[in-house]
Amino acid sequence: MDNDKALCDGGAVTTRTLSQINKLDQWLSQGSGTKGEMEERMKEPSPEQEYDTLQLMVVLHETTKKEADSKMSEGESAVKAEEAETRNGQLQDTVETPEQGDGEITDHHEVFNTKQNTEDGSISPTEDLNQGLAPGSQLACLLTEDSTQESPSPESVTRAEPRVQETTGSVQVQRLEKPMPPAETPAEVTECWDEYLASVAEGGESSSELIFSSLLSNTQPQLKVSGQHETQAGWHFPAGRGLAEELQCPLWQFPAASYYPPIDSTVGFEVTWRVWEKVDESATAAEPLPFTNASMDFTVMSYNILADDLLQANQELYTHCPLEVLDWSYRCSLLLEEIQKWEPDILCLQEVQENHYHQQLYPALSQMGYTCVYKRRTGTKRDGCATCYRSSCFSEVSVATLEFFRPETELLDRHNVGIIVLLRPVVMNGSVVKAKGPPLCVANTHLLFNPRRGDVKLAQLAIMLAEIGSVIKSCNAKGEHCNLILCGDFNSIPSMPLYQLITTGELYFQGLPAWMISGQEDLSHRAYGHRLCVPLWPSSLGITDRCQHTTAYKEESKSRSQKSGKGQYSHDFMRQLRFCPTACIRPLDLQLIPGVTDITPDASSVNQPDKSFSHTISHRLDLESVYQHVLPGSGNPEVTTLHSEGGSTVDYIFYSRRRSATWDPSAGAFAIRGLKLIGSLSLLSEDVLWSMKGLPNDIFPSDHLSLLARFQLDLNAV
């Protein structure tokens, strides 16, 4: 050990080995610089030399320790010799000699012993150097451990993983790789490695190399071991109780010498926010038919497209939207694209601005094959409703446009409208009509928005239902059954009184708060509020509590339609208004004329309740909603409209549902009445819409979602 010199300076250790001294003398003899220059080079060893030096210091420490142990008492030396002999016998199979070849890997416990050979200056393995510590910990022991400290027990021997026997100068060392935690017995230790297969092309052939990352030093290069795990199928790791099981992950193809998978090119995809949902026939099917008839499928779309005038007048509702998505030109293009995508056979639009309809919508829809009917709202607002249908699928029978504003009725002072179109389904073969179906009544409306005026909404709905009833009655008079589809923006949420009136056909309204009719706002905190009472509307409206026209009103309507000019109201009709609330208010500038303007109405004839009007309003149309208003699976409520104040369901498609077939003696055949719902376009929840930055956005051009349903009707029905 006289030839090895160790210098300690502030914890930094520099070791000069025999091989370094030999190399230094060799370089000097060849004239490769002065001895001082060579010493400077030797002071800056490479990372591999540092690691070799570290192992040599372990060898030197063990040799010093052996010399100290030889000075122990004869009895203690005999005991230690016996223990060492026993240990060497147990680990005999794990010791490799230099003749085993370089680069070979063993899967056994590694024990390294060294003995100085004084003849050739080499060191051969003879004694255990691995004392259960990693090389870094062994270096610390050189500076702190006492030479007389006891050796650890055999259980603390560290399991060392694949090693390569290398020769550095004249010193042969065995490099340690991946020290593993101590195990109780060698037989119970399971090897688990994260393995990567890298394909390396050498001489035109591909070979697999198993790459192990060094755990000893960050500066140590990776060790590539060839010839192992040629059939590697993936990663293996322990699992289960006691880590007794082994799991395998499928192999990923990594690029050569990389720990990361290759980056695939991103393929563009389209997010489908709304999907087509088919109706479960087992839940809605009527009794099986005893025959098979020709049928026709058609689709109906209802869509509030948000008039640009209304958007500009209520900009506070759309502060969450980028300005570009609010531009009408941009929204109109998206709207037409959506209509063209779904290709509905019947299209019911609300909030259609008059100038936009004539300039953009009507020309585009006509090109798509639609025949359109438009009705603008009364008053100063420029929007209205439009009903369009494909002339290749339907022929027009009649059209009725409705105005809900009635100057003679104080209750109906709002300018909302409706459209009722009676169509006949046809099946065309070229220009020849191949088959016809029963008449189909399509009604489209937009009721009053004001959440506090539920009484007005009920009156508007009653007018609509009464007119629909008249159209259906005219079809029945001709011996035909008429199917019905009622679409629109009803400004009422599901399960509230107005919705119940449509779907159940009856509503007891006496004493209900006016705000509760639609349920758009909860105003129950208000101490005082308008409550509904009998009669809900005056008899002068000509609508009964069963939502049907009275005979007198129908006759008066016909007479008015036949007249033109100013005198379009009969004397009898005007007499009905003589005691209305408006007529009872005396104008301030009205001149007093005895016997003419000084007559006060008889108290017995003023504010007398209409005994023909009950506490309940009803209809006989048998309607059902296409949507169930709750998303399947999640249970979240569906939303048809959304703005900065929240989302709700106010748009609906109601239809006359198909019932069981009945035998019609007059026709001598089975009569199938009603429509069969086949499917609908799913709606979305409020949280999903907010994740898309609300409405309108780059996908949906309005603050409402379109409603779309597919129906089936029988062509042979009578």
Short description:
This is Protein angel homolog 1 isoform X3. The chain is of the alpha+beta class and 718 residues long.
Could you walk me through the main structural features you see in this protein, from its secondary elements to its overall organization?
With about 725 residues, the protein is α+β, with helices and mostly antiparallel strands. It has a domain at about 275-280 and about 295-520 and about 530-545 and about 615-715: Endonuclease/exonuclease/phosphatase (Deoxyribonuclease I, Chain A). It is about 25% helix and about 25% strand. It is built from 15 helices and 31 strands. The strands form 10 sheets. Strands 12-30-31-13-14-16-15 form a 7-stranded mixed sheet. Strands 17, 18, 19, 20, 21, 24 and 27 form a 7-stranded mixed sheet that branches. It has a 3-stranded antiparallel sheet with strand order 7-8-9, with no helix packed on it. Strand 18 and strand 19 form a beta hairpin. Helix 1 (about 20-30) packs antiparallel against helix 2 and helix 3 packs across helix 5. The longest helix has 24 residues, at about 45-70. It is elongated, with a radius of gyration of 47 Å. Mean pLDDT is about 75; it is low at about 1-15, about 95-180, about 180-230, about 255-260 and about 265-270.
Main features:
single chain; 718 residues; alpha+beta; Deoxyribonuclease I, Chain A; 7-stranded mixed beta sheet; 15 helices; disordered N terminus
Indicate the topology.
Layout: E1 5-9, E2 12-16, H1 18-29, H2 35-42, H3 47-70, H4 74-90, E3 115-116, E4 123-124, H5 135-144, E5 159-168, E6 171-180, E7 197-202, E8 205-212, E9 223-226, E10 234-239, E11 245-250, E12 276-278, H6 281-284, E13 295-304, H7 308-313, H8 323-326, H9 328-342, E14 346-353, H10 354-367, E15 370-376, E16 383-390, E17 394-403, E18 417-429, E19 432-436, E20 440-446, H11 454-477, E21 483-489, H12 497-504, E22 506-508, H13 551-562, H14 571-575, E23 616-618, E24 623-625, E25 641-643, E26 646-648, E27 651-656, E28 662-664, E29 669-671, E30 676-681, H15 686-691, E31 707-714
Parallel strand pairs: 13-14, 20-21
Antiparallel strand pairs: 1-2, 3-4, 5-6, 7-8, 8-9, 10-11, 12-30, 13-31, 14-16, 15-16, 17-18, 18-19, 18-20, 21-27, 22-23, 24-27, 25-26, 28-29, 30-31
Helix pairs in contact: 1-2, 3-5
